[in-house]
Please model this.
Amino acid sequence: MQQSDEELIAAVAAGDREAFGALYGRRRPDVYRFALHMTGVPATAEDVAQDVFMTVIHEAARYTPGRSGVVPWLLGIARNHARRRLSVRQHERLPEGPAEPGVIADPADGIARGQEMDALRRALGSLPVAYREAVVLCDLQELTYQDAAAAAGCAVGTVRSRLHRGRRILAATMRGERRAFAGWPAPGWM
Amino acid sequence: MRNTRNKKMHEDEHSVDDRDLALALRRLDDAAVVPGPDPAREAALMAAFDAARRQRPSAPGGRQYWYMAGLAAAAAILMVAGLGPALTGRHGAPPDAGQASHGPLSSLSRGVQPEPQPPSEFVMVPGAATLPEMESGSLVRMDVPVAMLPSLGLTPPAANRTTAVRADLIVGQDGLPRAVRLVN
Model:
């Protein structure tokens, strides 16, 4: 029978090597995707995922079952590492569009759709970090408000308001993009 | 009427926005490719895990745990015994009351000779690093048997021939001591 995340964390804290390997294999994709959406750079996402599991090695005993799920706990760690890396490269431009090797557009959707997806990625990347976190945690990672609040280290109401504002900014940005793409044949955003 | 229509159009636009945005974000997430784990990174992590496991101090054994628990219980009893009369008010002030200023700790050390030397630095009690993080705690002054000092990470004073020494203990929310210092 497969061990739960909580059981794996407890085993990791007790020094179980196999449990650590299992947790890494199971949850690395979640951490990586979160980091990718937050930073926009696959190599940085890899680094953040590595940092997260390095932290888990030393801090697994600090996980408190019942306070939050394991995934929100991991994403909370990822958030801190991603923020640190974002602050280091805050003056760098976010990568643009098709040159991004870790995120691919569906070729069947055509060039216009690909362009708009790139626009959405850029819009997400240009959101203030706190709003971006809320959007990524709730809309992309599909965490509940409670879990997102646990990961972001804030109150549920704060997550909701950040999410609302983040969505509004994204929507406004994309409306502008849509107007810019008015000459393209693709309907809607995607 | 126009305002109502404008408001309705605005709400419709937001509703469409939300729906489109949710769809778009889902597509964006679906398009994110998660590469397989890099063997070099995975190996580095496992090596770090092994290194951490080797460096990790062994968890306090049963004997040490019960010893620390006993010490904590003794500290608690001492606290109650020391504070009890003051809380119930059945006893008058001690004879030296008013002669010296009493801090929070001095009420615990009634009837004990004044400290001629400044206290030493706090040192972590062996095994305290493996205990849960201290969220709250209290400072307890008590007489510790000299024989117990090595297990608290302290060296018994060579010149002191008494059987007990005065010490301050930082006791965590779980009643287990985290750090100790000698008072004299």
In short: The two ends of chain A are 41 Å apart (CA to CA). The interface with chain B takes residues 15, 17, 20-21, 24-25, 28-29, 32-33, 36-37, 42, 46, 50, 53-54, 57-58, 61-62, 102-106, 116-117, 120-121, 124, 135, 139-141, 167, 170-171, 174-175, 188-190 of chain A (CB under 8 Å). Chain A is about 70% helix and 0% strand.
